[in-house]
Amino acid sequence: MSKEVSYSGNASHNGLNIFGDYYESEYTSLEKVIQKIIVAAKENQELVDVIEDLTEYITAHPYREIIGLENKLKNGDRLDLLGNARFFKNKFSKRVAKAQMSLIEQKVYVQILSHIHISFNQFVRPRILEKAPASEIDKLVFIHIVEPAHKAIVDFDNAITKEFILGMLYFLTGKCHLVWDETC
């Protein structure tokens, strides 16, 4: 977790940085909700419903046959991703298990997993179904999933990497929330 900075007097920081003529843009909606989660958790430690929300993503999809990460990638003709996919998925699995007592972290994970789930189904899966080349699929994953999710979560925890976001993607794939072929 990143360390919190305390300001005294009239000093403060609103999350935007100004560097000469370069102005960092406003927060995205995903970044805003993560900031709200952090503020709400500081004000109210009883964020109980987060456990139910997170459980929806960390358990197997209830209406799909569970065939695992390897078979999902195999069916989608993406076994080239398997080595890293297993490694990144396991890193996220360990981290989410350790975070069981942190309601803030769990709530952030719900938001990121939801973003990954929706973005995959809206931007990536349609191109998979249209038989787009793997390079295009990889680019869509990076542009619509990895980059925005990383940008949103890095302010919450600057130890989170883009590989970690891919781990979340492959975690959802292994739990059959994401489909890499024509099935379903």
Tell me the layout of helices and strands:
Blueprint (H helix, E strand, L loop, with lengths): L17 E2 L2 E2 L5 H15 L6 H9 L9 H8 L6 H17 L4 H27 L4 H20 L8 H13 L10
Antiparallel strand pairs: 1-2
Helix pairs in contact: 1-5, 1-6, 2-5, 3-7, 4-7, 5-6, 5-7, 6-7
How many beta strands in the DSSP annotation? 2
Q: How many angstroms separate the termini? A: 38 Å
- Domain module count: 1
Structural class based on helices, strands and sheet pairing = mainly alpha
Mean pLDDT: 80
- State the helicity in percent bands: 55-70%
- Beta-strand percent range: under 5%
Number of helices: 7
Order of strands across the main sheet: 1-2
Contiguous runs where pLDDT drops below 50 for at least 5 residues? 16-23
Order of helices and strands: EEHHHHHHH
State the shape. Answer: globular
Taking the sheet with the most strands, its summary is: 2 strands, antiparallel
* C-alpha Rg (nearest Å): 18 Å
Any overview of this molecule?
The chain is mainly α and 184 residues long. It has one domain (27-174). 59% of the residues lie in helices and 2% in strands. The chain is built from seven helices and two strands. Strands 1-2 form a two-stranded antiparallel ribbon. A hairpin with a 2-residue loop joins strand 1 and strand 2. The longest helix is centred in the middle third of the chain and has 27 residues, at 103-129. Mean pLDDT is 80; it is low at 16-23.
